[in-house]
Amino acid sequence: MDSILIMMKTIIDNFGPAIIVPIIIFVIARIFKVTTQKSFLSAVYAGVGLQGFTLILNSFTPIITPVINQMVNSSGIHLPVFDVGWQATALVGFSTTAGMIYLGLGIALQTILFLVKWTNIFQPSDLWNNYSYMVWGAMVIGVTGNFVLGIACMVLLNLYSLLISELVAKRWSTYYKYPNCTIIAMHNVEASIFAVVADPIYNMLGLNKVKLNPAYLQQKFGFLGEPMTLGLFLGAFIGILGNIHDIFTMAAWGQILKVAIATSAIMAIFPKIASMFAQAFAPITEAARVFMKKSGNREWYIAVNDAVGYGEPATLISGLLLIPIMLVVAMILPGNSVLPVVDLLALPYMVQGLVAVHNGNIAKILISGTIWFGLGLYVCTYTAPLFTDMAVGVGVAIPAGALLITSFNILGKPLIGLVFLAFLTANPLFIGIATGVYFVLWLLFRKNNSKINDYLQKQAMKNAGAENDEMAA
């Protein structure tokens, strides 16, 4: 059994999404009786698109990361919990025994739930992000010593993330223009819940009338409002913040302009790769519609890696603007012990649920992100000792000057944190409540699926310029 699980992890590590997803797409296309030629081209488009996203993000990361580190250092914040990032957290998750077991269990569970129509999200196409469940469950085991309880926590968290993903699937697919696709990574889809609750409140306050979205900016400011130009200005702004103490040096301006051009390049190139990736799903979507009409007209969505939405204009603008905002929040938030560092660059991943629900309204996204991710800092503060013990146990080194470590992206999750706390107590009553809440929400969603989707669409279209934004996206 162990050898099988190790083999599965080895396959995921060595091949990655750019290989695994095209294979899955080819198989799905053939199941829906798409011709071999079209199925093959769909698979290639998916692989090329995913590899394109990876190449551009891998080029962008080493350019902007030093600037973010400089921004953190120059902020003067000294907090005991250091954010080591989602990459290190993924390593921890896959290095635990419970994580390895859930690698196989999770794939089986997710496939069965889709086949029996418990969910309309086909999750096994995004296997890598299963590590998010593993980390939480492993911490439960570390505290309680109860292996079954830890696995049960992973399963319930998986069910919650599937429900949230399905809740916003149509909205995400519509906004990002990827037919029948959605994101499933628990750590990046969870914030959608807050956006769904907060959006009507924002509309009551008139925030839907604030014309702050990519389409309006382009219409209002012409070439200055184009994504490429906005990226240039935004990159320069981030670069200046990171070089504020050396602003009069040539080296500083060299870095500022480099970040500006790199951000501009993301804005310009990303949509072209995105359009190629979207082509992968056109034949499947059409064939699936015909197939599903014969089997009850089921609407389903394939899970894709959230890298496919990273460079969308409203997403990247909001995510990068939240970097300095979250540093200030970390500095002034009473009781916070976390210094967000590595995962600040993950903010464009983290806001995608907010962007979809708020329909690209940057004012709403920034407010929701500040509130929800600010609450997430408290969850990181509380779980830091547990995560640090687990990380040290699998060989992760603690950075110099830090007492504890965390991941702002993975562990800064208020809703998930509540479910985790229920299992951490090992109290049957609290676990029963967490489980019961899920089943009630699942039943309500199942009975009102169409109404909820229509409601989210109407809410989204209330945003100023929303019609133009939907057409331009």
Structure report:
This protein is mainly alpha-helical. It has one domain. It has 22 helices and six strands. The strands form two sheets. Strands 5-1-6 form a three-stranded parallel sheet. Strands 2-4-3 form a three-stranded parallel sheet. Helix 9 runs antiparallel to helix 17. The model has no long low-confidence stretch (mean pLDDT 86).
Q: Classify the helix fraction into a percent range.
A: over 70%
Overall morphology:
globular
N-to-C series of helices and strands? HHHEHHEHHEHHHHHHEHEHHHEHHHHH
Protein structure class? mainly alpha
* First-last Cα distance: 46 Å
| Spans where pLDDT lies below 50 across 5 or more residues | none
- Tally of alpha and pi helices: 22
- The radius of gyration over CA amounts to 22 Å
Query: The biggest beta sheet, please?
Result: 3 strands, parallel
